[in-house]
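Homework help thread (please don't just give me the answer)

Our assignment gives two proteins as sequence + structure token strings and asks us to describe the second one. The first is just a warm-up. Here they are:
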Amino acid sequence: MTTKEWARAALSHPAFTGISRAHLGGLIEELADPWIAWCESALHERRGGKRKQQPGAGPKHDLVFTDRVLVTLVHLRTQLPHAALAELYSLERSTITRAISEIRPLLAARGFAVPDRPGLRLRTLADVFAYAAAENVKLRIDGTETQVRRPKAHRPGRCAFVSGKKKQNTYKTTTVSDGQGRTLWSGADRPGRMHDQTAVRTEGIAEQLRLHPNVKAEVDEGYRGLANEFPDQVSAPPKKPKDDAPLGDQYAWREQRRRQSSARICVEHANAEHKQWRPLQRFLGRRENYPATHRAIAGLVSDRAAQRATRRKPSTELVPVHATAR
């Protein structure tokens, strides 16, 4: 039989948590106060009034706060079943489930780390655009999908999760990164049937583009409507010329498309970092827990990505088609 001390020492390895031990220590310290505040609020709601016992009185937790954070990170990194984690700690599965349900929202609410700005975190799309306007950052925007469980038969909205692209039941999330693939924001979680552009429009991206006319963004074909509405701010791949177009126009289109793809590939790399965590490869939990899971993982990934040094290199402007020699 394993002991809690042994389980804590083994599971704190970066292979299980996905973060370094130094990062883990800082994360536990960061979440301690929000967790205490949440516990006080829960006690107040249950008792319907002021505290009747001194702090520390009453039954003790079977799983201390440090272990609660640890099992949540292990579950987010490996999607290890709750029953397996309970066996390691010699506890009931319900104890692990309750611990994860308490810590996961705290991780999701942390927001996303900002490169070269320790202590500053972005939590909304408005924060991202304000940061991009202040720091002159060109944004990269892309959507990603994760397979989720299919809703039960005869349930309303059962087809809402069927993705026309993946041909599976998915959840769609929008990711925003900078030019080096460092995650700045991840959100706008919507059922997979919704179009990429519609999902991010419901989050208010059009209003943010109007409020910050100097902010520019690179997108893919899925955001063609945004590029048409904001041609000076949003750059999408050029439209393919007709089959009977001159050969020079076709060569120019290919080169322009290659450059645009090269400019926005970094957001694909950001999504790839998220997909290294098992739940975002195929989510096996309840669908209503997916948004908090994705935000928690993306926030942890952004902590590591923000530590990468900023590389300075000259920007490459796209060459118009008519300017290319035929």
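The one we have to describe:
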Amino acid sequence: MSFCKDCISGVRHEGQPEGKIEQIAGIECYVATPSGDYPKDKVLLYLTDIFGIPLNNSKLLADDFARNGYKVVMPDILASDPISDEIFNSGKIDIFKDWLPKHGRETWIPVLDKVVAELKKTGVKRFATTGYCFGAPPAFYLALKGESHVTVISHPSHLEVADLEEYRDGAKAPLLINSCEVDQLFPKESQAIADEVFGGGKFAPGYERTYWDGCVHGFAVRGDMSNPKVKAGKEGSFKATVEFLNKYL
């Protein structure tokens, strides 16, 4: 259970977020709502990396999903304790030895349960998740609990073979994994194992994996858009995610 230097590096994306901060069941959430008509019974839960709601990149990405017709709710799964902005690009991965033990499943499971329960009260019947790095295990949790209907994870962290097998055997939500060339936390070996576990029709609900050459862990959120390969990876993984949501949600 660890993180890598790419977990705290990347490029900040410029832009003014269009969503707003709301309290849902007492949980701080960033909410991005489509400007036009959209299905009120569907919500995309955006499960963040370790920078959480404060990272501008994540809010802009949530806005982009809203532009594609999905209401997005980004709950604070970090217990109001995201990795601080000053750590961005610092290389100080030693911070994780103190931070990680404070952010186990017992901290984010109640958050997700409360938010999902409250959204159901408003008429939401179908949930999808898009989890980045730290947000991958929470996405798996919601699928295994039967709460989410579509799962997308990008450059996931903290998923072992046993987690993949548990998802295959116990979840019904179709799964998309956006992977890349250089990823210490989900390397090519792990990508191949995922294909073995889910591919070839072994996971009936549906399985797809994208692979982006020239990209490193974090590319889907914090990628350097001046690099053509990284730009292709970020934009391509976003497009693949939207298409997957359109197909299954």
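TA reply:
I won't write it for you, but here's a hint about the kind of observation we're looking for: The helical segments are 56-67, 96-99, 105-121, 136-144, 161-170, 188-198, 219-222, 228-248.
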